[in-house]
Amino acid sequence: MKIAAEVRAFIERQRVAHLATAGPDGTPHLVPICFALADGVVYSTVDDKPKRTQQLRRVQNIAERPQVALLFDHYEEDWGRLGWVQLRGRASLLERGEEHAHALAALRERYAQYRGLNAGERAVIRVEPAVVRCWGALAG
Q1: What are the angstrom distances between the C-alpha of 31 and each of 4, 17, 28, 115?
Q2: Closest to 35 (Cα-Cα) out of 85, 104, 88
Q3: What is the per-residue pLDDT across 67-125, written as a single tens digit (0 to 9) for each?
Q4: What angle do CA 110, 2, 111 make, to 5 degrees?
Q5: For residues 98 and 33, what is the distance between their CA atoms, to the nearest angstrom?
Q6: Total-model pTM
Q7: Do the bridges between strand 41-45 and strand 67-74 make them parallel or antiparallel, or are there none, so unpaired?
């Protein structure tokens, strides 16, 4: 799906997104993520930051129910400058290969912190948007 230039620019200005998945029983799960938008696809990875487990709920949920939502939002006290973009689509997990390497390169370019982390052995979450919804002040 092609994402309009204004929407893409808004997404790229955000440093964090929120990924919503659902468990097998429909229980929602929402987490903040680092992301890269490349060629109309959103990528995120499971990195080496300390976690209680490497069996992350978001990864398990995607494997069982690939429909996800991503929220990119901007808040200011001046409510005339509020805005958000929601992407809904299908997620998949990339374990290796050319697209996996491309996604990691995009993430490393966007976040200096990824340059020092060993993300190469980790799964990459790939979200192919199917629906784009937006509201508010999207222009920078």
Answers
A1: 25, 8, 10, 22
A2: 104
A3: 999 999 999 999 999 999 999 999 999 999 999 999 999 999 999 988 876 656 678 99
A4: 5
A5: 22
A6: 0.91
A7: unpaired
- Residue at 96: amino acid letter: R
Considering Cα of 50, then 27, then 7, then 41, what sign does the dihedral take?
A: positive
Partners of 72 in the beta sheet? 85
Phi and psi for 122 in degrees, rounded to 5?
-95, 155
Determine the residue type at 97.
Answer: G
Question: Mapped to the 3 state alphabet, what secondary structure does the chain carry?
Answer: CCCCHHHHHHHHHCCCEEEEEECCCCCEEEEEECCEEECCEEEEECCCCCCCCCCCHHHHHHHHCCEEEEEEEECCCCHHHCEEEEEEEEEEEECCCHHHHHHHHHHHHHCHHHHCCCCCCCCEEEEEEEEEEEEECCCC
